[in-house]
Amino acid sequence: MKFKEDLLAKGFTVEQAKTVIDIINGEFIPKSRFDEVNEENKTLKGTIGERDKQLEELKKVGGDNAALKEKIESLQAENKSLSEQHAKELRDLKVDNAITTALTAAGAKNIKAVKALLSIDDKTELSEDGTIKGLAEQIKALAKSDGYLFEGAPKLKGVAPGESKDGLPGSRDPKNMTYTELAAYLEKNPGAEF
Q: What is the mean pLDDT of residues 76-103?
């Protein structure tokens, strides 16, 4: 179960993950899926309302057969266009949710910024499991080239405030250092000579 793996990846113990799954008991719906269904529901309600208006217009035209046929053809073309637009909007929403889910799992610090660096277009293929083909490879490449955008990025190393390049605190002479400062210096610089 992917949900259990996600919980374990977030640091839950096996017992904690099992408890969470037992509490949810199959009633969990991912937010991305909820958003998709909710958006589709809104669009369908709007489409039904539009079709009801079209039927009322057809009732008014009812007397002339040629005008009725013409009106039906124009409404069919309009409905086809609306259907295609709805399918594109739904696909775009699924792609956006898949990207957000993948970036969250990868530990992106700023999802919006990382999305801008991905090459996603209208030809992007959405697989049946809701993931995008090739997205994992793009994220891995970004994490390698721009690791600072992701959690767990390597820390930058440098000179600490108050230390000189040679590691001596404030470039002090080792003879004037306290025992603690000298021990820290020797730990950082094994084999140093004075």
A: 86
